[in-house]
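User: Can you help me understand a structure? I only have the sequence.
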Amino acid sequence: MEPSKRRKIDNQRLSPESCATISPESRNDVSFRDDPIVQLRVGPGGTIFNVHQGLICDVSKVFKAAFTGEFQENSGSMTLPDDDAIQFDHLVRWLYKRNLDTFPLSAVESGKFRWTSLFEFYVLADKYDIVPLKNDIMDLCFSVRERILHRDKGYGIVLPRDIRCVFENTIHGSQLRRFVVVYFAWHVDRDWCHGEQTFDWLELIPEFSTELVMALTSCLQGREDPFNDRQSFHEHVSQP
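Assistant: Let's start by predicting it. Here is the structure, written out as tokens:
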């Protein structure tokens, strides 16, 4: 992220009023009239996000435990210095709008798309266990993939640094890990394996390498493309 762009958001105070009006369907029956506002200070710059407590607690067990659990944040605020303010801005806008229009697909057609932002956003949603958001991001990944397949074979490859980000910040069984591995096995031109640094970065991400071998075996055996079942890449909200 360029410094100028990061300063632009770090100096903002983002609140529900900065987002679009929410329809009753997207509120998940949370009463906004009596719902307190909590303050989240995000990133090294301490960007302030003011959000309705009930809304964020309704989708995240992590925030619910923080603000309403036994060890709740009595001050009504949390500091999240390790999170990226740009990505958290996407999260808050999704929270109020329930769409991902901050990630326009036009970037794919223009040839400027990179997987980095989407993967980092999924990692953030995973960190706070926001299952509906993870599923929405996964649907967007599918939409991006479909557009990429209509372009030249060298376009849309997942960079080693993005793979490393995914595997260092998710656990075994993550649907994002599965997406990356299956994408490589079924839809990335095999020429990538002849790169001069291929073995170097594969050694740095052994879990990816192991899962990729298994996926490539399935692909070469002619098994059905896992992308034919989008719902299998969704997670389900666990009931208490």
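Now, to help you interpret it: Confidence is low (pLDDT under 50) at residues 1-13, 15-30. The longest strand covers residues 37-42. Let me know which part you'd like to focus on.
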